[in-house]
Amino acid sequence: MVLNGTVVEVAHVQGNPEYLDLMMRLSGDPQPHLNRTKKSLYDLIFSRFSLSDTTSWGAWWRRLNKVLGRPIKAYSDVEIISELLQQLQMATEKEISQAVDRVAVATPDISSISQIVNAALSDLNLHTWVGDSVWYPERFSEADAVYAANGYGLCSNYQDLWECTDEFDSPAGTHVFFIFYSRHALYTSIIAPISGEALTRFNWDEAQILDFELGLDHLLQTNGSQDALWSSLRSQLSDLPREYPFSLTHILVAGESVMYPRFLATLRDALAEIMPMSPLNLRTNIPGYTKSATVSKSVDLTFAASRGAALYARRRQEVQAHCTESSKCEAIRERERVHIPWKIDLR
């Protein structure tokens, strides 16, 4: 989170079985396609008054269930996320001794997940920095957050939007392979930030894989030989880069289980197979990957996505993307305050 202008790592909450079941269901949903067909009046009215989790009537229904004392886990996907977010909110507020009222949440680039997260935030009266304006991302990709957390794609002077535009006007392609590994899941994706800039409106996943059968807990608890599962893990790690038509410029990892020795060895083997010669300009945060690759500064891999989200939130608070003015304007205002004889607040 951002505390007194500094990004700090505060709290961590483990997902429960209901959350894992929800993520497994949502990850199996097909990606939505843009549909420009006009909806009928019936469709528009029905969607607005539906008791679906992500509608306003769905929120009303959840509040009624809470008043009636129904257990959270019994009736809604939104409550599953809401419960975890509330735990995180309470743990954070206890740690910093002040209220948290606005957040930025990074998720895998699956629209249904983002919709449910936003509905849960609304139930908790937490405002979001994501999807609240046409000038900012509708969804905040986890890969983009980790890319920023490792110091990539960030403006030297982000408070001047025109300087940012000039800094990232190079057409050179940036292609980031992101690997998240936890006790419960393997998630890989590739993003191609426009001009290499992080935290922008248009950074989304080009491709992704989410596998709940290859989480570290499952691999370690499997009876008998584990070689087949580790072989499957290696195959999944190499699938996206092998099929991707462009050379990778960044390989970034995150997650609580990334540093498990056998996983790191498997990842290195998979990458060596698809990239026998590491590109000279390759940047990574994998410890000891290759001598030729540039290794980024150390970031706590458990909090990497959260750190990127906090960086995004800080920029949202300090700079507005839809309006800007020359840096000399404030100096002009200050001179006017000093030299104008009558008292006028020129702000």
UniProtKB/TrEMBL annotation:
Name of the protein: Uncharacterized protein
Organism expressing this protein natively: Penicillium brasilianum
